[in-house]
Specification:
Low-confidence stretches: none
Helix content: 55-70%
Number of helices: 5
Order of helices and strands: EEHHEHHH
Strand order of the largest sheet: 1-2-3
């Protein structure tokens, strides 16, 4: 099996090299545009992006949503703008990486909701004839890309303390 080159790599200057092939950038461009459209419509597939604040008390949940929904929406739109702005970049900074991580996670959650992804699907995939197979492959790609982003972000963390010999 050929080795896949890391798509996101931390540079010595503390920035992040974005090594996505043009085809992957184009897929992400379409997905980001789709997510922007879904956010504008407040589509039902966004429910995992705005989970309930109180599952058993509708009034408390409505109050919670009134308090946080606009801020959450603003944060998501700003992150989308950052990804759109940096989609063709070769490098990005830590704040941009964070936006990419958030948007990639949001894309996964929405697509997973639309596909009704289960643990079994994650373990075994879908049969080639399944009409959802192509979109599920995109979901798996987003999962892998999110892992790449997390790995790159983790490179900025200080090393764990060394155990002392007592």
């Amino acid at each position: 099996m050929p080795r896949v080159t890391a798509r996101i790599r931390r540079t010595r200057r503390g920035r992040f090299q974005l090594r996505l092939p043009p085809e992957e950038r184009e897929v992400l461009r379409r997905l980001v545009a789709d997510l922007r459209e879904l956010l504008a419509r407040e589509d039902t597939s966004l429910r995992r992006l705005f989970p309930p604040g109180h599952a058993t008390d509708q009034r408390s949940d409505e109050q919670y949503r009134a308090l946080v929904k606009d801020d959450l929406m603003t944060q998501r739109v700003e992150a989308l703008q950052t990804v759109e702005r940096t989609l063709d970049a070769e490098e990005m900074g830590p704040d941009e990486l964070s936006a990419w991580l958030g948007v990639t996670n949001d894309l996964r959650l929405v697509l997973g909701t639309q596909l009704d992804v289960t643990e079994e699907m994650n373990e075994h995939g879908l049969p080639p004839g399944d009409p959802r197979a192509e979109r599920f492959d995109v979901y798996r790609y987003l999962t892998w890309l999110e892992w790449q982003l997390v790995e790159a972000a983790a490179q900025t963390l200080p090393p764990p303390p060394r155990a002392s010999a007592d």
